[in-house]
Design brief:
The chain is an alpha/beta fold and 187 residues long. Helix content is 20%, strand content 29%. The protein contains 3 helices and 9 strands. The chain has a 6-stranded mixed β-sheet with strand order 4-3-2-5-6-7, sandwiched between helices. Strands 1-9-8 form a 3-stranded antiparallel β-sheet. The radius of gyration is 16 Å and the shape is globular. The protein starts with 13 loop residues before the first strand and ends with a strand. The model has no long low-confidence stretch (mean pLDDT 91). It binds inosinic acid and magnesium ion (MG). Magnesium ion binds next to loops.
Length: 187
């Protein structure tokens, strides 16, 4: 077995918040929950897992391997205007889904629900496309920052009001590849 890369923690601008082991255990639980919840569907081929680019990619890749059902994976690209660390609430679709979701059972996979503006916009947009059902799966939630009331059907972890990186999440497009979730010191 090759060990994961050793990050030189003391010289990096972040400290570990959630370990790779804790993430793996929680992701397995979420996958099992999703498997159980969708098991009774007569046509499981109608499940569409939508990853929100780019932050959800690593989470989604691990999660879907714990979902024991036939699924279709799709992605949507969005950008929110304004400062990278402050959500403006103005969201634009930069890359749309590759197929319609009408009549499908959709599971939206997000990295983090912060103010909630992005997910609010996305869920409203998807609802107009008339899916059979729609649920939200988010790895992280920062309730202290909530500006929208968002129902998260499958949640990994509730975290304090700190800026986090790793396991898909970035700061200025950096550190998505950390195997753990770290918080930016001083944030
Ligand atoms: P919102 O504030 O809920 O709309 O979150 C918008 C987006 O900001 C999320 O999907 C993330 O991509 C990003 N974001 C929010 N908080 C963090 C963080 O702590 N680290 C990295 N990205 C974040
Ligand atoms: Mg995001």
């Amino acid at each position: 077995m090759v060990s994961p890369p050793a990050w030189n923690r003391s010289s990096e601008p972040f400290a570990e918040l959630i370990s790779a082991q804790a993430i793996a255990a929680r992701v397995a639980e979420l996958g099992a929950q999703i498997t159980a919840d969708y098991a009774q569907l007569s046509r499981t081929s109608d499940i569409v897992v939508v990853g929100v680019l780019k932050g959800s990619v690593i989470f989604l890749a691990d999660l879907v391997r714990h979902v024991a059902a036939p699924i279709f994976v799709d992605f949507i690209g969005i950008s929110s205007y304004g400062d990278a660390t402050l959500s403006s609430g103005v969201v634009q679709i930069t890359q749309d889904l590759s197929r319609p979701i009408e009549g499908k059972h959709v599971i939206v996979v997000e990295d983090i629900v912060d103010t909630g503006h992005t997910v609010h916009y996305l869920m409203e947009n998807f609802r107009t496309r008339r899916p059979a059902s729609i649920k939200l799966c988010a790895l992280l939630h920062k309730p202290d920052r909530a500006e929208r009331d968002i129902k998260i059907d499958y949640l990994g972890f509730t975290i304090p009001n700190k800026f986090v990186v790793g396991y898909g999440l970035d700061i200025a497009q950096q550190f998505r590849n950390l195997p753990f979730i770290g918080y930016v010191q001083g944030s």
